[in-house]
Structure formats: structure tokens, C-alpha cells
From TrEMBL, chain A:
<feature type="transmembrane region" description="Helical">
    <location>
        <begin position="36"/>
        <end position="57"/>
    </location>
</feature>
<protein>
    <submittedName>
        <fullName>Peptide/nickel transport system permease protein</fullName>
    </submittedName>
</protein>
<comment type="similarity">
    <text>Belongs to the binding-protein-dependent transport system permease family.</text>
</comment>
<dbReference type="Pfam" id="PF19300">
    <property type="entry name" value="BPD_transp_1_N"/>
</dbReference>
<feature type="transmembrane region" description="Helical">
    <location>
        <begin position="318"/>
        <end position="341"/>
    </location>
</feature>
<dbReference type="InterPro" id="IPR035906">
    <property type="entry name" value="MetI-like_sf"/>
</dbReference>
<dbReference type="InterPro" id="IPR000515">
    <property type="entry name" value="MetI-like"/>
</dbReference>
<keyword id="KW-0472">Membrane</keyword>
<feature type="region of interest" description="Disordered">
    <location>
        <begin position="1"/>
        <end position="26"/>
    </location>
</feature>
TrEMBL record, chain B:
<keyword id="KW-1133">Transmembrane helix</keyword>
<dbReference type="InterPro" id="IPR000515">
    <property type="entry name" value="MetI-like"/>
</dbReference>
<feature type="transmembrane region" description="Helical">
    <location>
        <begin position="30"/>
        <end position="52"/>
    </location>
</feature>
<feature type="transmembrane region" description="Helical">
    <location>
        <begin position="97"/>
        <end position="121"/>
    </location>
</feature>
<protein>
    <submittedName>
        <fullName>Peptide/nickel transport system permease protein</fullName>
    </submittedName>
</protein>
<feature type="domain" description="ABC transmembrane type-1">
    <location>
        <begin position="93"/>
        <end position="283"/>
    </location>
</feature>
<dbReference type="InterPro" id="IPR035906">
    <property type="entry name" value="MetI-like_sf"/>
</dbReference>
<feature type="transmembrane region" description="Helical">
    <location>
        <begin position="261"/>
        <end position="286"/>
    </location>
</feature>
<dbReference type="Pfam" id="PF12911">
    <property type="entry name" value="OppC_N"/>
</dbReference>
Length: 351, 298
């Protein structure tokens, strides 16, 4: 994926930005409150936007919801009444907002169950996959980025930067297909070594063996997710370390006689970490997009696959619910990143 | 009379500037390779109707065996209906490139208008525009594009809209920053003092100054639009036409991996990768040549 590479810079700049647009000397708490206000506003916009976008659906909403099943006019009228679609638009809107605020996301037509229950079931696998993937991607990206940036223009730097630039251009799903073919099915004399579908085997054992079973199912999805995500952390860590290396305080640290290792670990890296850590949160929306693709390819029973199924059917109530949930989660993560960044970096605080 | 004279002066200056730009651009080997690859890809896509037509994508016209490996008749093998992958990829490049270019264009135009307006009009209008931009920036773009495309129904036009509407905010931010920098210069003040209105200042002074940046970001945007289009197609939201993304979707649906038909998965993917890398190389070279900030640093 290429887009976020360019997005990375404005995002980091934006993270550092709020300081210069706002009045000086505001307390962190006040800052957090104003950010929280902004987040609430964004969430409200998401709810309002969702309502109107889903009303853009061409044709009769009841027929759309029922996915073209045959219904008598009486049934249609009943459905319309049950869903409140015979009311004026403004009442429908009030109903929608009220229900959403009470976490009532409606009932899925496909599964005949409340959307919220479905989401609850699928949340665990997604958190597991995205969590493990993110931890690996972040540690790998930061470690390689640090090494590459510290030994600028070394062979390690050139190779790892080159690899991550290629991984950028590769569409996530294609990488997934390749891994599926090579490691899942096997190619030529190499047999497939990892399972490619779902989260557990049909005859999954109990206890520790179960953990191993899930872990082996997780290898390929995780690998795909990490490959696509870690490149951006590497590149950002590398470039922000490069900026620190030429700073005066690094020269001072060296002049004090500190070993090279210590200059890096104690002085340069902590400063270079800040923009990178923010980026981890800022680009969470990108990780979510990757997760949808990865879960689809490997039939991982998570939120992403639920969303994909909703699009495929299409099941508009389910689509609407998962869309709102994912978006709100991303907004919250971004807000958290803003606040945490300010707490961590005194330069932004005093700016 | 004098208007004609100043016009020709401006044009000869522009010609000079372009010559300078071309000289700088040629220094970037990566950029030239990318440009060459792009020209080849675009020309191939444009001349495709002279040699083949829509029928190469028709399931009944496949003459080869199912999942036949590469051979003389089908140099890149065949798919599940015996159609030649080579011809499919060639024909599909038209959809992929068309959607890529138009979606990038839409995204850039929205980003440009919003960015210049947000930078030019201070006060509530600019602030509101920035709020909207930031809001769109936070939305997970792939998810939003999927929802939009699913709601509007799959056609070339709706896919373009879905991608364009979800990817403009980064451009808007970039252009706004550049607009602010341009408008801080004294000649803008002079222009205002001489009675230049909003329209005159934004179109005659700001736009020519942000245009180089726009060119660079358009190139990069096309690359990401092509990837997004293929991802959307793979996730089942497509224009119902053969593109590289829909081919990969079919390879997944018909179990090409299990059947060992590696060519079906490798070839369309390599096409995407090649075009995307070409655009990225070009865009980076353009950025390096045109962005004064990077030029100073380099």
C-alpha cells in the first residue's frame, strides 16, 4: 500500500502541530478535554453521516434490507412500519441516533441476530490478530529502523529500506495470496506447512495443544499483516533517528565519552521514538484496512471478515453497525495518540 | 497589444522553466525508469482495442484448457475458463489504469479546492474546512470506500467516486500548507493593494505556485488509487469489468492456489506492482525536483 507513506509525514507534522496553532501554556488536562470534545464531535459526525449515507441507497430501503426476497405488499408495509420507515425523515433520524447511543445497532437480516452480539463474538479474534501483529510489526519496525538510521547508508540500511519500500507497493491481498500459495498450499516440492483457513482446526484439542493450534493458524495472517504494516514504522523510525543524529546533544553525549551504543540507547532513540509512537496510533485506520483484507483471505473469524460478509451479501444493517464501530474505535485511538504525545513530549507542551 | 507581448514573455519563461525542470528530472535515474515504464503501460492500454477486444474476457470464448500452464498459445497460462491470462491482463489494464487516473484526478481536484480555500480564507470558513478535512483524514479510508461503493452500487463511476472521496484529505493538508506559505509573500500583498480579488489571487498567484506540488502528489495518488481499486475489487466491490483486481479475486474464488496455477496469481499481481512502483518512482523524482524544501535538503 502506498498511500500512507505520504500520509505519514502530514500525520506526524499534525501530531507536532497543535502546539503552534493553539494559545500557549494550557494545562495538559485542558488540552485532553478539548481533544475529547473534538473526538465527540467527530463521532457525532460519523453517526449523522452514516444515517444519511445509508439513506442514499437507491430504491426502497425495505427491499434493500430484505435483499430482494419475495414479499407481499402487506409484508412490505409491516416491515416498513416495524423499521419505522413510514415516519418522517426527522423522526427516523431521532430514532436512529437514540438507538445508536443506547448501543442498539439493529438486527442483521443475514444472521437474524442483533448486530451488537455478532460484533461481540468477532471482536476477540480481531483483537488477538491485530494485537499480536501490531506488537511484532512495531518491535520489528522500530528495531530495524533504529539500526538502519544509526548506520546510515550501510548495507543493512539500504537493504531494509529497499525491502520496506517494495512491501509498500505490494497490495496487501496479493501478498496474502502469495503466502497462502507458498506456505499454505505448497509450491512444487515444498509442502504446505501452515493452515490457511479459520482460527482453529475442526478437531481442535484442549489445553496447551489448543493454544498451539490457534498459533499455527495465526502464522500466515499475522505474517501478512506484519509485512504490510511494519515498513511504515521502519521508515519513520529511521528518518526521525536521522534527524536526531545530527543534533548538538548527540555530539555532546559523544564528547562526554559515552560508548556509541549508549549514545544511541540513552539519548537518540528516546527522542526519535516520540513521533514514531504517535504514528503507531495515528495509522491505526490503515491497520484496520489491512486487517479486513487479511481476515478475508484467511477466513479469520474476526470483525474484518464480518464487515466483508456484510458488504458481500449485502447486509446493510450489519454494514452500518460494523462501520460505525470501527470508525469510532479509530477516532478514539487517534485522540489518545494526540493526548499521549503531548504528555510524553515536553517540547510540544511548552510550545 | 501589450497583453499579447506580456503573454508571450510569460510563455517563453514557462518554456524555459520546463526545460530546466526536464534537465533536473533526467538526473533521476529511478524517475526516468518509472516514466518509461508508465509510457509503455499507458500506450499498451491505449492500443489494446486495435488488437483485441472485450471478447477476450468472455467466459465462453476461452479456447485453452482450464488452468493450463504457460505455453506458446497462452504465454502466461490460462484461467478457470481457459481464457488467456496475457490477453486478460492486457485488456484489464484499461480498467485498472482508467480508474486509477480518474480517481486520483478527482481526489486531487477536491484536495486542491479545499486546500487552497482553507489556506486562503482565514476565519471561520478556513477553520471549518480544516475540521472537515481532519475528520475525513481520521476515517479509515478503505472501510469508507467499501461502504460507499457498496451503497452506490458497483460501476466504474461509483468506484472512482468512492476512492476519490476518501483519499483527498492528505492533498488538502499539503496544499493548504503551501498556500499559507505563498500568501505570506509580499507580492500577494501588492496584488491585493492593486485590487486583486479572491478569485484573481487564488487562480493567478496561488495556483501556479502549488501546481508543481500537485503534479507530484497526483503521480503518487494514482499509484495508491490503483492499489485501492484492486483491493476493493478483491474484496468484492468492483466495477464488474475485468481488471487486475477482479482477476485476482477470481483466482482466489476458483482456488488457483490449490490447483497450483501460480501464473494466475503472479501475473496480475506483478502488473499492479510494476505500475505502482513506476508511479512511485516518478512521483518521488518529481517531488525531489519540484519541492524546494527537499531540493535544499538534498
Amino acid at each position: 500500500m502506498t498511500a500512507p507513506l505520504e500520509a505519514a509525514e502530514p500525520a506526524a507534522a499534525q501530531a507536532a502541530g497543535p502546539g503552534d496553532e493553539r494559545p500557549t501554556h494550557r494545562g495538559t488536562l485542558q488540552y485532553a478535554l478539548s481533544k475529547a470534545g473534538g473526538a465527540l464531535f467527530s463521532i457525532a459526525m460519523v453517526i449523522i453521516g452514516t444515517f444519511f449515507v445509508f439513506r442514499l441507497l437507491p430504491g426502497d430501503p425495505v427491499r434493500n434490507l430484505a435483499q430482494g426476497r419475495n414479499m407481499t405488499p402487506t409484508q412490505l408495509a409491516l416491515e416498513r412500519h416495524r423499521l419505522g420507515l413510514d415516519k418522517p425523515l426527522i423522526d427516523q433520524f431521532a430514532d436512529f441516533v437514540g438507538k445508536t447511543l443506547r448501543f442498539d445497532l439493529g438486527t442483521s437480516y443475514e444472521y437474524k441476530r442483533p448486530v451488537l452480539d455478532l460484533i461481540g463474538e468477532r471482536l476477540g479474534p480481531t483483537l488477538l490478530l491485530a494485537g499480536v501483529g501490531l506488537v511484532i510489526a512495531v518491535s520489528l519496525g522500530l528495531w530495524q529502523g533504529t539500526r538502519a538510521g544509526w548506520r546510515h547508508n550501510s548495507r543493512f540500511d539500504r537493504v531494509s529500506t529497499g525491502v520496506s519500500l517494495v512491501l509498500w507497493s505490494v497490495p496487501t491481498f496479493w501478498l496474502g495470496l502469495l503466502l497462502l500459495m507458498v506456505f499454505g498450499v505448497g509450491i512444487g516440492p515444498i509442502p504446505g506447512i501452515f493452515p490457511t483457513r479459520g482460527i482453529e482446526s475442526v478437531d481442535a484439542p484442549d489445553g496447551f495443544a489448543y493454544v498451539l493450534d490457534v498459533a499455527s493458524h495465526m502464522v500466515l495472517p499475522c505474517l501478512t499483516l506484519v509485512a504490510v504494516v511494519y515498513a511504515q514504522y521502519l521508515l519513520v523510525m529511521r528518518s526521525s533517528l536521522l534527524e536526531e543524529v545530527s543534533q548538538d546533544y548527540v555530539t555532546v553525549a559523544r564528547a562526554k565519552g559515552l560508548r556509541d551504543d549508549e549514545v544511541r540507547r540513552r539519548h537518540a532513540v528516546p527522542n526519535a521514538l516520540l513521533p514514531t509512537v504517535t504514528l503507531v496510533f495515528m495509522r491505526i485506520g490503515f491497520v484496520v484496512g489491512g486487517a479486513v483484507t487479511v481476515e478475508t483471505i484467511y477466513s479469520w473469524p474476526g470483525l474484518g471478515q464480518l464487515f466483508y460478509e456484510a458488504i458481500r451479501v449485502p447486509d446493510f444493517t450489519l454494514m452500518q453497525g460494523t462501520f460505525m464501530l470501527i470508525t469510532v474505535a479509530v477516532i478514539l485511538m487517534n485522540t489518545l495518540a494526540d493526548v499521549v504525545y503531548r504528555m510524553l513530549d515536553p517540547r510540544v507542551r511548552s510550545a | 497589444m501589450s497583453a499579447v507581448a506580456t503573454g508571450s514573455v510569460a510563455w517563453s519563461r514557462r518554456r524555459l522553466a520546463f526545460g530546466r525542470f526536464w534537465r533536473d528530472f533526467r538526473q533521476h535515474r529511478g524517475g526516468m525508469v518509472g516514466l518509461l515504464a508508465l509510457v509503455v503501460a499507458v500506450v499498451l492500454a491505449l492500443v489494446a482495442p486495435l488488437f483485441i477486444d472485450q471478447s477476450v474476457t468472455s467466459v465462453v470464448s476461452g479456447t485453452g484448457a482450464k488452468f493450463a500452464p504457460p505455453s506458446l498459445a497462452a504465454p502466461f497460462g490460462t484461467d478457470e475458463s481457459g481464457r488467456s491470462i496475457l490477453l486478460m491482463v492486457w485488456w484489464g489494464s484499461r480498467t485498472s489504469l482508467l480508474i486509477g487516473f480518474l480517481a486520483a484526478l478527482l481526489s486531487i481536484v477536491i484536495g486542491m479546492v479545499v486546500g487552497i480555500a482553507a489556506g486562503h480564507f482565514r476565519g471561520w470558513l478556513g477553520a471549518t474546512l480544516m475540521r472537515i478535512t481532519d475528520w475525513f483524514l481520521v476515517l479509515p479510508s478503505l472501510i469508507t470506500a467499501m461502504v460507499l461503493a457498496a451503497i452506490l452500487g458497483g460501476s466504474t463511476f461509483t468506484i472512482i467516486v468512492a476512492i476519490g472521496v476518501t483519499t483527498w484529505p492528505t492533498t488538502a493538508r499539503l496544499i493548504r500548507a503551501q498556500t499559507l506559505a505563498v500568501e505570506a509573500r509580499p507580492y500577494i500583498e501588492r496584488s491585493k493593494a492593486l485590487g486583486g480579488g479572491h478569485w484573481h489571487i487564488t487562480t493567478r498567484h496561488v495556483l501556479p505556485n502549488v501546481a508543481p506540488l500537485l503534479l507530484a502528489s497526483t503521480t503518487l495518488e494514482v499509484a495508491s488509487a490503483i492499489v485501492t481499486e484492486s483491493t476493493l475489487a478483491f474484496l468484492g466491490v468492483s466495477a464488474n469489468k475485468t481488471s487486475w483486481g477482479t482477476m485476482l479475486r477470481a483466482s482466489y474464488d476458483f482456488g488457483a492456489a490449490t490447483a497450483g496455477a501460480w501464473w494466475y496469481i503472479i501475473i496480475p499481481g506483478l502488473c499492479i506492482l510494476a505500475v505502482v512502483m513506476a508511479f512511485t518512482l516518478c512521483g518521488r523524482a518529481l517531488e525531489a525536483v519540484l519541492n524546494p524544501r527537499l531540493r535544499k535538503a538534498g
